[in-house]
Amino acid sequence: MNKLKHLFHRNTFKKGIVVPSLIFILFVTFISSFFPSGTTALLGVVQEWIFTNLNWVYVWSVTFFVLFLLFLVFSKYGSITLGDNDSEPEYSFFSWVSMLFAAGMGIGLMYFSVAEPISHFSDQAFNGGSEIRRAKDAQLYTFFHWGIHAWAIYGVVGLSLAYFTYRFKLPLSLRSCFYPILKGKVNGIAGDIIDTFALCSTFFGITTTLGFGVVQLNAGLVQLGLIDGTGFGYQVIIVLVIMTISILSATSGLDKGVKFLSQLNIVAAMVFMLFILFIGPTVFLLGSFSEGIGYYINQFFDLTFNTHAYEPDIQPWFFQWTILYWAWWISWAPYVGLFIAKISRGRTIREFVGAVLIIPTAFNFLWMTIFGNSAIWLDRNDAGGLLSSMAHKSDELLFRFLEYFPVPELSSALAIFIIFVFFVTSADSGIFVMNNIATNNAAKSPKWQLVFWGVLLALLALVLLNAGGLQSLQTMTLITALPFSVIMIMFCYSLLKGLAVDYSYYTRMLSPATNYWSGERWKERLEGILSFKNRELVSNFMLGTVKPALDELAAEFNRSGITATVHTKDKPMELSLTIKHDLIEDFTYGVRNQSKMISDFLVNEDNMPGADENKTFVPKTFFGDSRPGYNIEYFTKNEILADVLKQYERFLELSSEVRNEIFTDTASRRIRNEGNGSTQL
User: 509: which of 187, 483, 606, 671 is 20 to 30 A away, CA to CA?
Assistant: First the structure.
């Protein structure tokens, strides 16, 4: 007893996340199990209202995610590494891509590979078109739902997590994605709420997938004659076997269990796909794959923005397929994003986005073409419409489809094996991710915590299967996708803000004040670096060093026949040397006493130059052409003289070039200003 008590005291759970999550999970399971009909009806009404009235939120959100990631690929931020600048990827490219599939949508490829194209092909909403048009559109819509848009959703969450975790050294949790906005508050209640949402969403997504997947596995085993029914007893055995292997895989770690199973399943899936390709209508499939890619590219933007507002007859289909898919992918994004981030250290942003968007999408397109178009071809030629008539039986459709190929028993067995391993890899990576969220990315957790999540998944999935409450849980998961889509947009804002700071930090050149530095007067330089100035000290520097330099230079200009004047202004103090011109822009070199905010971390740091408050003052230059200035607090009088002469030489060089007349010609600006109702220069 004492050993058991000691075991449970040794945990890395964060109570602020785990306790509210378990309360909510158990509450939802309770009402879904004991009041399945009423709960399903109520949540169905809510979902229908959201899909009908707020479908544009999903459409715009997903569109934004696609455009945002494409922007990052082609932007200056694309070369930033997810980790230290010299970080190397932890996994080989093949292992990385294999695990992407395992966590992302591997099981869905098996479940919908035949069911979705056949459903679109036979849907009453498209009966007005020819059979060929319906076949092409079935492939197009399947591509749309399983292509770039779906992976962009996963990519936004995965990239945000990987960036803030490996670049900013923050915990691998959703709260970290809000760091640029919330700063230190991410470690408080706000962060716990965000991670609680992520944990519940992940748990519900895996539970519903496990529950519905068990039904398909059961149907396949019946088809093979290995079991003689679809009763609850058989489902209990299937769940126990899946979760036992999943727990063993999860406790062995990413580098062993998850990695091995993911690679094994990709190889098995490739063999299965090639079997259908070469035994089926090969020439037709390869040709339709090429046409399908072209059709998808041609219709990309129309599909992306289309809400079918002018086609009320198609909108029910649109809500139950496209919007449901967007909601489903968004609801899975915390889980898949966390897993993708975990395995993506060392990749550049450009490599991450390119691989996540293109490689899985290309594979999905090939997979859906081979299975979906084979099914449609068979339905039109050999099956006499039988597959279309079974469109509502998604659990059985894949196995009925395989009956039209040689050795259906062998191919069905291979399909069951792939489905089984996909379930295991989804469950074991899900266990790993849930424990990661619950512990706020603790460095090392006891293995019993992984066992705990696996057992809880299995128990609640069986409870919901037996009570018929899985539909309620799935519906509620889809509803929660609406607020999470808004959260994901905030991720994008936060990520962009972090990237801007990151890029500026690593590309910042040395201060102009260091241009003149040598080993001479180094102690004075050091004293200046170690001190923070108030307004009065900077004003004294300007009056004692800057003004004499500008006065001396103005006197020399005047002796040379060039009129130059020095102007002084108070509050805030400004000094400027101006040479006025009639036909070209005036030359101005000025210095103002400007305040500058200091980071809280620097103020509170013991082993750094001391600062009493979050503000210091610096003498900062400004110019007549509105260029950004720079700090000259370390300049001597002679260095200020040299700096003014450098700027004046630049001014003369630019003014002498014909191509720069548009910037230097004051007459042209006068005409433009007068056209705008202003006579000021």
Answer: 606
